[in-house]
# Entry
Amino acid sequence: MTRTVIGDRAAWILVLLALCACAPLAQAQARKPRNIVFILTDDHRYDALGVMSHPLARTPNMDTLAKGGAHMRNAFVTTALCSPSRASILTGTYAHTHGVVDNFTPIPPVLPNVGQLLKAAGYQTALVGKWHIGNEDDKPQPGFDRWVSFRGQGEYLPRAGATMLNVDGTRVPQKGYITDELTDYAVQWLEQTSRDTPFFLYLSHKGVHADFVPADRHKGSLKDVPVPSPATMAPEAAVTGRFPTWVRNQRNSWHGVEFPYHSTLDVAEYYRRYMETLRAVDDSVGRVLEWLKKTGQLDNTLVIYMGDNGFAFGEHGLIDKRTAFDWSMRVPMLVYAPGLVTPGQQIDRVVANIDIAPTMLDLAGTARPSHMQGESMLPILRDQKAPWRTSLLYEYYWEWSFPQTPTQFALRGERYKYVFTHGVWDVDMFFDLQADPQESRNLADDPAHQKTIQAMRAELFGMLEKTGGLKIPLYMPRMGQSRLRNPVGSGAAPFPDVLIKKP
# Structure
């Protein structure tokens, strides 16, 4: 497929009509398909789980999912930014295909989301929580029988007359802590579902997006727990690690440890608040699992938990996401389905957000539309040795509002990662993830790896060409620019040595 935006509305209407026509046949061929519960968390880094032995993690319910199902240990997003990642989850396509490359652009109306496709297949459907595709729009979207959402990022705590939820097109005041309230709505909808047809719940939390606000019951619960200090945070690590100039300069920026959000924020304390905020999300997972168990639905339900992107707390001198480093693009993914997924699996195959929609459709017995670029994970959930991809495409497009992070394309393999940086006078990145999982040493100029780098570059651009990704999307600038530097912070980094002409 070579189109960057999906073609004509009439074609997709025909697709949806065809799916509607096929739905009774699919249901007749099998007994009631499994229910699907998809729980999405914002900014949840891949290692922030108890099963990953994170010192600050208190996630017993997520750990239950991992131990009772499959922990996908090499799960990634194809763009580490809220709206693009969510659009990829819903459509099964890369950002250069669905066109949502920032936090302001909506999914094209001609491109069906997985809610529409599952509804056409006979599912009861609900979206509860953060939509955040198109930024301010909270109106109900096609494909969902039940709609509970809010504008933009939403807020953790209600403010009288200011924080509103859109419930099926009607705005009602937010009443309490957002993670708990969204879970209330989700469980209420589950209670009302028919037992005769399968349901699809998309529970999308605001947590744990910045600025982190823990629930009252969790505030201060980690105050005495030491916070890990990344080995790549110090300025010296950037020199010895041969980091690109843009990475070294970004440490003194809105997204850097020297000037985080243009403030004097204590990054370590910020990390504690993040992990305390995550605890309410874990409580939410527990409440949903308890409802499924109590009502006898657990054995006939697929539960998928994942984050929409990662987050840094000092790695490479940075905070936030967007980059092609693993702490940005790698996410937790837990798949729980009694009788389908063998308990306690640790699967290391490279999976991604674009695989979510195809997996759900496969489970529902519905054919994957030809435009989807992800694959169903069901084969590797049944057999880890089943044929599967060995590398994944990553893309991030420069944002006018946050100019410190350049456009990046990356090929993330099982052992190596190659990062192509576009639009800046700088070096690329290459990491041996087996020898250096913290990505502390950029080997892009190491003679021993040049053949591998050339092969990965060719594969990367081949994937871009095949999927229609060789054009850079450009939209009108929105909002202001977070472009300031701290005058007492680090000065501008020098050019990399490899760019200096030798005598």
User: Anything to note?
Assistant: The mean pLDDT is 93. The CA atoms of residues 250 and 404 lie 6 Å apart.
